[in-house]
Description:
Blueprint: H1 2-6, H2 9-12, H3 14-27, H4 35-47, H5 65-75, H6 80-84, H7 86-105, H8 108-119, H9 122-127, H10 134-154, H11 157-173, H12 176-191, H13 198-226, H14 236-243, H15 271-289, H16 293-310, H17 312-328, H18 341-364, H19 371-387, H20 394-398, H21 401-414
Helix pairs in contact: 3-7, 4-5, 7-8, 7-10, 7-21, 8-21, 10-11, 10-19, 10-21, 11-13, 12-13, 12-19, 14-16, 16-17, 18-21, 19-21
Amino acid sequence: MKKLFTRNPWFIFSPFLLYYGYLIVNNKWPRLYGDEIRYVDFAKNLLHGYYSPFPAHINLWNGPGYPIILMPFVALHIPDIYTTLMNALYEYLAIVFLYKALGLVTNNKTALISAFLLAIYPNALSMLPILYTEAFTTFLVSLLVYFVTLYYVKGNNKYMIIAGLVFGFLTLTKIIFGYVIIICLLACLVSLLFKKNRAHYLKSLTILLIAFSVTVPYLAYTYHITGKVLYWGNSGGMSLYWMSTPYEHEYGDWKVPNLSNNQYPTLFKSAEGVAILKKNHSAELKAIIRNDEVKQDELFKQKAISNIKMHPLKFAGNYCYNFSRMLFNFPYSYSYQDGAILGNILIGSLTLWASLVCMVLTGLNWRKIVFPVKFVLLIAGVYLLLSGALSAYPRQLNIIIPVLLFWVGYLVANTKLNLKFGDKADLKNTNPY
């Protein structure tokens, strides 16, 4: 009975499953809005035997991973509130598998505390009532951490295969991980040139190759309809365009094409801000938007690259602002901020300083750190560096929190730190003068 209350994560964290359901029921909007509509529309397309309309209207704004999950709910005409309630299950599973992963390489106390911190992470909780990919992606990230760690501990190849399959589906859900896979593959290939730890690099390489193979059918499909190799989606160009903006008082956050400036944060928008946006971008956007979607993506990227070359310091500043938004949820262009920023500063500061301390500890103890920690850190590091180059928000950081907690938990459990004095202080030879 004692183990049930102290070592069974399915039981220990079950109250959070009920609490998440309560949050969703009490905060879900009565109708779909924003990205929710797109995910459901893609699920409907899949049920009709295609993903993107072709050739008249190619839409590859996101990968098919989450729409595949939504297909049975859409097919059975299940009300949106019940579909959204699945977010409670995804977040709960993310907590459980983070606990199980840490339990393999640390102690029960560390695993409990780390999983509890994920369970109460405010930014993740705020996304639960929305039919977005974040809760499901967080679950996949925790699952990936668990199976990579399980493979390291057990040495069974089936866990390596499962880890690769999970990473592959994660990539289909968040297509930015496609670029993460490619960069990590190159890093592992270079690392194989060194004899030391070659076995670990081969393990990483195998997981990455399995993950990439999962995405091959999707990449074959995108090649078929666009003629472009390794084409993950057409949303990156516009995001990079806004990230590269050279104008003062614009911080790299994404704006809608009609320049109405009515996206988050929505409070206290001014007509003056909209006028400045239109003055700076209206002509360019009109020239780009008149083209088809794939051409738009290409033109946005061309303009972004031109902006970066002409204004590299401004791009560097926007890159920093991106990380600030991921951590603190500000700044936003032409928008007032609200009181919620205080909480964001507190949470972001704790995350930032914990990460900086862990970076120092990791550097000092790199040779002693186990393979799963190194591997998931590589994935998370590349992901965050790439996210900084696009318009980024707290939701981009939310999904990688399981990796950060796994990292922090592992280091805390293996770092010897004593902040207390000895039992008896030697005062005999102390001269206060």
